[in-house]
Design brief:
Keywords: Amino-acid biosynthesis, Arginine biosynthesis, Lyase
Strand order of the largest sheet: 1-2
Pathway: Amino-acid biosynthesis; L-arginine biosynthesis; L-arginine from L-ornithine and carbamoyl phosphate: step 3/3
Shape: elongated
Enzyme class: lyase
Protein name: Argininosuccinate lyase
Number of strands: 4
Number of domains: 3
CATH superfamily of the largest domain: Fumarase/aspartase (Central domain)
GO molecular function, one term: argininosuccinate lyase activity
Length: 464
């Protein structure tokens, strides 16, 4: 509120809408205002709201002329500007914390380029990949979420000031100047839209809701992988909770909190969109005082989970040997066996798929792992369908059911091959580096607003 007051005053003086000496008296009152006292004061029924309380305090300090601070403005355009200023701060903070999480994910992935895991589709074992390949996918999803939050920031960071109640003013104000002073990227062109539109809040809520949903899916995987039955991950002691009765327990409550908090963030964001639905297009409490706290809480919660997960990943331990053994003994590699038969035997993929499916069924019925597959079994299965001699060698058979070979041969763009994952992580780092630079610039601009405004006002006062 005080930043808006200062920017509006500077503009009024520069446009010569109020006399210089009057502007200086108002500036002196503003700079003398006990802001911290106001910030901690309780509501009093003697004034309607904080706006009028500030106006009352300014008049006590500077006299009746301080009432001209309200020339060419309304609580409508002022309030929306304040909401947008608060929201852009929260969006900026969430983006910065999301970038921190992305760095942690990239660092974690770089340590697990060669860590074999079994990927799942439909909750069933599918194909071998690497932990880095999985984390790289999570990073790509997070990157899109951060870009959506950045887009929401751009939609939010527009000034409503100068719209007044909804029709602007007959005074020769400069809407562009107040926007510049408050580090807005521009103005909301239509004055009616400036005080009535709420899509800036809806856009931020939508971005926050999607971000919470996407990250929650990943956290669900992490919780599964932390189970003793799965045994793939171990959360550091700092992020677990013991049982009050069962001595063996290491409950990964940090991840459980992350999951529930993300659900909370999603719920608050959904409330924002629900409160906007079927409201009239105008200056209304629904999309202002009552709705804003849900949006702020959603972003605050999302930002806190970003920070929490960033810390967890820095100390997360992986049972690489168990995950590798599980991959080596599973049937997840047999897609490559089918591909190999296409290459060596000249079969169609559908023929090859059918042959390998029968082999898997045969091994499963006898409880034999994939390592028990013999060349003779493959020969019999192929001849049963095609009656051609087998060109496949024992060495090629061993290779075709190796999870390491499975991963290495998949060097198509976006695949799990270590070199390709290295490339993908490097590309992520470059793209996110640009977003980090943008984020640092935004933080710098927002932090400089108060100082720049005070510098102008103090310069006025020092020259009198």
């Amino acid at each position: 509120m005080m930043a808006v007051n200062k920017a509006h005053l500077i503009m009024l003086r520069e446009q010569r809408i109020i006399p210089e000496q009057e502007a200086i008296r108002i500036a002196s009152a503003i700079q003398s205002l006990p802001v911290n006292k106001l910030r901690t004061s309780e509501y009093s029924s003697s004034v309607e709201d904080l706006f009028f309380q500030v106006e009352y305090e300014l008049e006590k300090l500077g006299g009746e002329c301080t009432g001209n601070l309200h020339v060419a403005r309304s609580r409508n355009d002022m309030g929306i500007a304040m909401y947008r200023m608060v929201l852009r701060e929260k969006l900026s903070t969430a983006i910065a914390s999301g970038l921190s999480l992305h760095r942690s994910l990239r660092n974690f992935a770089s340590r697990h380029i060669h860590t074999l895991i079994i990927a799942h589709t439909h909750t069933q074992q599918a194909q071998p990949t690497t932990l880095a390949h999985y984390i790289c996918a999570v990073g790509d999803s997070l990157e899109r979420d951060l870009q959506r939050l950045k887009t929401a920031y751009a939609g939010c960071n527009r000034s409503s000031l100068g719209a007044a109640a909804l029709t602007t003013s007959g005074f020769p104000i400069s809407r562009e100047r107040t926007a510049e002073l408050l580090a807005f990227e521009g103005i909301i062109e239509n004055a009616y839209d400036a005080v009535s539109g709420a899509d800036y809040a809806g856009e931020a809520a939508s971005a926050a809701q999607l971000a919470a949903v996407h990250l929650g899916r990943h956290v669900q995987d992490l919780l599964l992988w932390c189970t003793q039955e799965y045994g793939g991950l171990l959360v550091a002691a700092s992020y677990v909770q013991i049982s009050s009765i069962m001595p063996q327990k290491r409950n990964p409550v940090s991840l459980e909190h992350a999951r529930s908090l993300l659900s909370s963030a999603k719920g608050d964001a959904a409330t924002v969109l629900g409160m906007m639905h079927n409201t009239p297009f105008g200056d209304i409490v629904d999309t202002e005082d009552d709705m804003q706290p849900y949006l702020w809480r959603s972003l605050n919660t999302l930002e806190s989970v970003y920070r929490l997960l960033s810390e967890i990943f820095q100390s997360l331990r992986v049972n690489e040997a168990l995950l590798r053994e599980r991959a080596e003994n599973s049937f997840a590699t047999v897609t490559e066996l089918a591909d190999t038969l296409v290459r060596t035997e000249g079969l169609s993929f559908r023929q090859s798929h059918s042959i390998v499916s029968r082999l898997v069924t045969q091994l499963t019925e006898f409880g034999t792992p994939i390592s028990g597959l013999t060349l003779e079994m493959v020969q019999a299965a192929v001849q049963n369908m095609t009656n051609i001699p087998l060109a496949l060698t024992r060495e090629k058979l061993r290779e075709s059911i190796s999870p390491r070979h499975f991963v290495n041969i998949r060097h198509v763009r976006g695949g799990p091959n270590p070199d390709e994952v290295h490339r993908a992580l490097s590309s992520q780092a470059i793209r996110l580096g640009e977003l980090e630079e943008w984020s640092r610039d935004v933080v710098c601009r927002l932090r400089s607003v108060e100082g720049n405004l005070d510098h102008i006002l103090n310069d006025w006062l020092n020259r009198t």
